[in-house]
Amino acid sequence: MRCEVPLARPCLGEAELRAIERVLASGRLVLGPEVERFEEAVARRCGRAHAVAVSSGTTALEIALQAIGVGPGDEVLVAAFTWPSPAHAVRRVGARPVLVDVDPHEWNATPEAFAAARSPRTVAAIAIDQFGFPARLDALEAALPGVALVEDAACALGASLHGRACGGWGLVACLSFHPRKVLTTAEGGMCLTDDAALAARMRELRNHGQRAPGRFVQPAGNARMSELHAAVGLAQLERLDERLAERARLYTRYRDALGDRLQWQRPAPGARPVYQTAGVLLGEELADRRDALVEVAAQRGIELGRLSYALGRLRSLESFVSAPLPVSEQLERAGLALPLWPGLDEASQDRVIEFLVDWTSKS
Ligand SMILES: Cc1ncc(COP(=O)(O)O)c(C=O)c1O
After folding, report:
1. Is the pTM higher than 0.90?
2. pLDDT at 2 over 80
3. Which of 235, 228, 229 has the alpha carbon at shortest distance from 26?
4. Which of 56, 192, 230, 339 is 20 to 30 A from residue 174's alpha carbon, by CA?
């Protein structure tokens, strides 16, 4: 099927090509200066003392939980509407994910629901800045004393809450550099923290459990980021603000044109989002026809996506449902992601707008 207006497209250019050439010419492909420079630059951007670059956002979450010491017998609170990685990471370290429903307007964790789901076994909570909209991280921290807060800022590099950068909250924050994120290294992720001992454990965990070269202290895997990936990340970082501004402009253009035909994600008080995804909810009349709408759009060359997942409905996680999760299920059913990437031209965006105006007028 032809797809003239894809959902997402990474912004890559001359700078990224030059960065790759630089690394290839150097002959040093791993454990070198590019990763160090990338870590320093992202730590600075997020206001953190330490950054540990890894092979993906999923790996970042797993390593963060392991380094905190989460394991069998522990419970970890997880927002129930998202990509499965945070809850899978909890399972992969042997702990129990406790799925907590999200706010119907902000689509993120609420401090009240997280506090209510806490048990004596709760050791950590993962708050997600879904689609680049910061969760109520300050209130979550306050509502969960004694619980290690992990900020899943996979989508939120460049966003902030009350002036403090996303990636800068919680005991550890995790980023993803997947091609659909606001900054990409192809695959990649990062753990950010202000705790030096925790950072040292995360460095061990990404590098075969080595405390120093040849000093293996635990049987960990290889979760390193390569020099090539880091060099691309550095090039991307140079233009991050410009590209975030472009995303914001395109998002606003959608909102101005589509207004209350659709429901939009609401930012938390004090939040400055980045628009990693243009997510919308269809009205009740159209929600049941969401998949048909996606298919007809595809026939017209427009790629629309489902928004995200109600984790309690996934086979890998259904046995961890301990309470009804109606908001997550509704967001999954009625949610739609619209094409959004820096470089999307206005004529293409107008095709998406016209298509949606047409469908929402018919319903
Ligand atoms: C909220 C969230 N957490 C974690 C991840 C995992 O990141 P990665 O794809 O880099 O493993 C994603 C990726 O889509 C995500 O959206």
Report:
1. yes
2. no
3. 228
4. 339
